[in-house]
Amino acid sequence: MSKVGFRRRRDQASLLLLFTLFALLPLTVAFGHRGVAPWLLLASIPAYLRGDYWLKVFGAVFDHMDPRVPFFAAYLSIMVFCFWIFLSGFWSPRSMPSLGLWVLGPVLVGGSVVWFAANVNRVWAWRIAVAYAAAIIFGMGVLTFEGISGGALRAILPPEDPDRSRDIIALGRGVTALAPALFAAGIIAAAVWNRWAALAVICLGVAAAFFNDVTANAVALAVGLVVAIIAFKAPRMTVRTLSVLALAALFLAPLAAFIPVDAVFAFGEGWAPASSLHRLAIWQAAAERVPEGLPFGFGADYARVWKETAPLINVPGVAAPMSVIPNHPHNLYLQIWLELGLVGVLAFGGFLYWGAVAFARANLEKPVIAAAAGAFAAILVSTMVETSLWQVWRFAAMGLAAMGVGLAHSLHMNWSRVQ
Questions:
Q1: 10, 15, 270, 376 — which has fewest CB within 10 A?
Q2: Which of 209, 213, 186, 88 is nearest to 132 (CA)?
């Protein structure tokens, strides 16, 4: 077979694979949100089959090995972060150095998917972007139906869950998996159809969040929408502000030790959600424990071990006492401080800073910046209230959103009608 014939077959297979994956995405988030991780892995295959991916991406990294180059500095920072997770596994009570791969995997896979989405040709840009937007729309549609019907589709499949609590929680996490991608889907819908289509996409996402009753999803979408609108008017200021907020959330996370939990419990009793009150206690307990583990941290996944001996607290609105620390602190930045110490904080902070600088210098189109800003804002909310380092599907969801931003960029670059 000639090189031209091989490339044609490769491209046909890649396009078929992506269309199949987009068709399966709505069912993936409805029946198993953790499936977003293998979904993203399969979506990375077309990039890995292309020689120019290896040449351009790794060439861009290793041909410019200068810490002053933002892209390389961001890459180096996240590699140090993942390596530090690996090292911390040797002194962690869990003794799991392999946890470093749980972060490294989504980073590498997500990067390949973003590169592929941002570098497709004119025809592929249109086809894949439309398929992506359709997948997000149908995914939110299925989740809305499931929320209204009480999980009718999930009830068809085993195992049986008499009180349906696990089903409802899983549906809420399905919305979490798609929420950041909603903004890129909206920008694509506006480019391919019109602004009303974009509004319909956002409204569908809001409906899915509302009917599946996860407050964090509703807040994330609301914040993301406001930030995306602001980014249309002031893209540079929005990117700069978001990066400052993310860095502040990371470096100031230990200040949660000063939360007046008892006073808040007394004030919120009878009207504040019990889950929100419990989170405040979790954050305070985790932040108070941080200084004991500095400078290196207690090790990867320490919180899961700490849970076994942690004290119980009485949370207003909950009949039985609850642990002061669950499997993780429900705050990504506090978890980094607690388990990875100052080294982990500095490495992750470097990734956030240099990643923001690289993004700002990319000179992207306003709608693309708006999609990225909205997604990042929604992710920032999620990282503050529920994300754990060891939930691979959440990082895969970030990769899915970034893929949409890459496709929105390709669409605007290749089709003059959406400029």
A1: 270
A2: 186
Find, among 158, 223, 142, 211, the residue nearest to 385 by Cα: 223
CB crowding 252-266: b at 16 or more within 10 Å, else e: ebbebbebebeebbe
**Contact criterion met (CB below 8 Å) for 392 and 38:** no
Residue 213, phi then psi, degrees to nearest 5: 55, 50
The answer to whether the Cα torsion of 289, 355, 15, 181 is positive or negative is: positive
Token pair in block for residue 280: 């405040």
Tell me which residue has tokens 């319909």. 200
Name the nearest CA neighbour of 19 among 51, 46, 59, 49. 46
Per mean pLDDT, which range of 7-16, 342-351, 359-368, 408-417 is the poorest? 408-417
- Report the C-alpha gap between 51 and 255 in whole angstroms: 48
User: What is the rounded distance in angstroms from the CA atom of residue 369 to the CA atom of residue 408?
Assistant: 10
The Cα–Cα gap between 321 and 315 comes to 7
pTM over 0.90: yes
Q: What is the distance between the alpha carbons of residues 158 and 249, in angstroms, rounded to a whole number?
A: 41
Looking at the DSSP bridge assignments, the partners of residue 313 are: 322
Q: Where do runs of H (alpha helix) occur along 212-331? A: 215-233, 235-251, 261-268, 274-293, 302-306
Q: Which residue has the higher pLDDT, 105 or 152?
A: 105
Beta bridge partners of 322: 313
How far, in Å, CA of 419 to CA of 409, rounded? 10
Q: How many CB atoms lie within 10 A of CB 353?
A: 19
Q: Checking DSSP bridges between strand 312-313 and strand 322-323, what pairing results, if any?
A: antiparallel
CA–centroid distance for 301 within its chain = 19
Query: From CA 90, how far away is CA 85, in angstroms rounded?
Result: 9
Rg from Cα positions in the chain: 22
Q: pLDDT tens across 138-154, in order?
A: 999 999 998 898 888 87
Of 147, 70, 18, which is closest to residue 358 (Cα–Cα)? 70
Phi, psi torsion values for 322, nearest 5 degrees: -120, 155
Q: Give the other-Cβ count within 10 Å of 211's Cβ.
A: 18
Beta-bridge partners for 312: 323
Q: What is the DSSP string of 131-163?
A: HHHHHHHHHHHHHHHHHHHTSHHHHHSSSP-TT
